[in-house]
Each structure stands twice: as structure tokens, then as C-alpha cells.
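hey m, so remember when u said the C-alpha cells were messed up on ur end? i reran from scratch. heres the input so u can diff it against urs
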Amino acid sequence: MTLFRHAVLELAAYVPGAQPEGAYVKLNANENPYPPSPAVMRAVARASADAVRLYPDATARPVREAAALAYQVQADEVVVGNGSDDVLTMICRTFLDPGDRIAVVDPTYTLYETLAAIQDARTDVYPLEEDYQLPEALFSTRAKVTFLPYPNAQTGTLFPEQALRRLCEQQRGIVVIDEAYAPFAGLTMLPQIRNYGNLVVLRTLSKSHSLAGLRVGFGIARAEIIAALMKVKDSYNVNAVSQAAAIAALQDEDYVAEITAAIRATREWFAAQLNARGWTVYPSAANFVLTVPPQGRAAEIVRAARAGGYLLRRFDTPLLQDKVRISIGTDDQMRGLLACLEHCGVTA
């Protein structure tokens, strides 16, 4: 007899981007290279002793109200999570029984499959087309929950909105559109929660708002779905300091617009620089680029960059093993990476 659930024994744990100690420039986890809004830092500095001593608002109602204003929805259509990963956990707890199935594309954010497996649910994988567009078979899946990043988590692909609407229309199960990178694309499915009762849109403050360390994310859907998610969330899942920071971040729209515009501009400049050096760079609407280095040298380049103080990301999976994903940093950081690769002789 074993003490562990079979699903846990068989589980392949999610592996996040490396977080090593040392003076590395981290371009491997899609973190924002710019600091949070000054308003956020003031909110954190103002945190009182009671904010530490007492339990936080269990429903995060003030944060939900701030998010409702920012996203043009109602507060009862928002649930707050300890990052959007926490909301993914709520979704799996709410909708998946043992033996149920989820649908995902490949490549995608691999945490979806891990969270489903914890519930003893199974994953149906639909490989993207050669141009990273959605496969026709995805639209006929009968999965209980379909997870799709918009833009896509590993490739930066921005799927056509009409395709996402079709997915919502043809699915009998829940459709989760994960918009972790949407602020860098300027497009969103948020208005469509009015049209589709099976749609859940995820947002996070980790990337566009520079709050990855404070962990605040949102699930946005019709009120009846949010009410169900609220039943299964952890009691005090978002701490008081993070709640205060989230409100300040959501209210400083001008600052977020400024830094997301800077990242988009750097992304386009950096992609052009790699193209000029013989790399293949896939179109990206996120805060990273997916690239194919010359001569299939992905693993070598990741090692060389790390030796030079830069962390990049390579996924050892069939559709990504010859590619390198590079988060977009500041202009100086990206120039430094190019110089590092040229010094190591691996840019062409």
C-alpha cells in the first residue's frame, strides 16, 4: 500500500524557468524588465503592521472593484488569485472530475496538463499547424475544459479572434482564454464574456504590471462561474500587501501603457537584429520572441549565453528543441545579449 494518490505518483511536475543565484540577466521567464509603477511602491511602503498581523480581505473585494473598472466588467465577474496560476487551479477544482478531459494545443503552457493531472483528469493534445495556427481538430473536441493562451505562451502567436469565438461557440465545455500576454498585443477577449457563458478570461499583473513577485491574477467570466470559483479558492489566497499593490497598479494605466509600448518597440528592434544575423524569428505579440538559431545550435546558444551572464529558455520537447525563447529586456540588456553571443561566436 502507498500513502500517495496514484495521480500524484504519476505526475510530471511543472518546471518553471530557472531562478539561479548570481548576477544574471534573466531573459528566460518573461518577467518585465522595468520596475513597478511608483504608485505600487508607495502602496507597498505604506503597508501597516495590521496588514501583516491580520488576515487580508478573503474575497479581495476592493481589488475586484479596481479590476472591474480596469477591464470594464462587474466586480462579481472577477475572482482574484495568487497569480493567474491560482485561478487555473480553481478552474480545475471546479470543473474536472477524475476521468474528465482537457484540451490543449502544442506548444503551450504546460501547467495546464499538470493541474488537470492532479485532479486525475486527462489531457488531449492538438499540435499547432506549421505556422503555429490552430488545428481544425481543436474545434471538435469534447473536452470538459479547453485551455488556450492568447497570445500563445511558448510561441507568441496571436490567434485570430474569429477562431476563438468559433471555439466558444462550438464547445460544450468551458473555454479558458489565458491572456497573460494580452497587454503586449493590444487585443482581448474580455468583451466576449457577454456573449459566451462558457468563456473564462485570465489576466495577470505579473508581466505587464511588473508584479511577478507579488502574485496577483484574475479570472473574469459571468457571475455564476465566478461564484463557483470562489467556492473552491483557498480562504485567504491573496495577501494584504499584494492586494494594495494590485489596486495601485490597476489604477496607473498610463505607466503600464508606457512600459508595454517600450517592450513592444524593443521586441521589434531585437527581432530585426536577429533576422539580420541569420536567425529565424517567429511573429510575436508577447513580451518574448521564439527563435531558431542558425545551424540548429539552440542548446549551444543557451549554454553560451548563460556562461556570459544571460539566461535564455529552451524547451526539450519535439516541437521546440531546436528553438530558443528569449524574453524582452531593456534596450541595454538586449544589446548586451547580442554582444555576448557575438563574443562567443554563436550569432551566425
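this time it looks ok to me. The domain at 6-34+254-344 is CATH 3.90.1150.10 (Aspartate Aminotransferase, domain 1). if urs says something different then somethings off w ur setup not the seq
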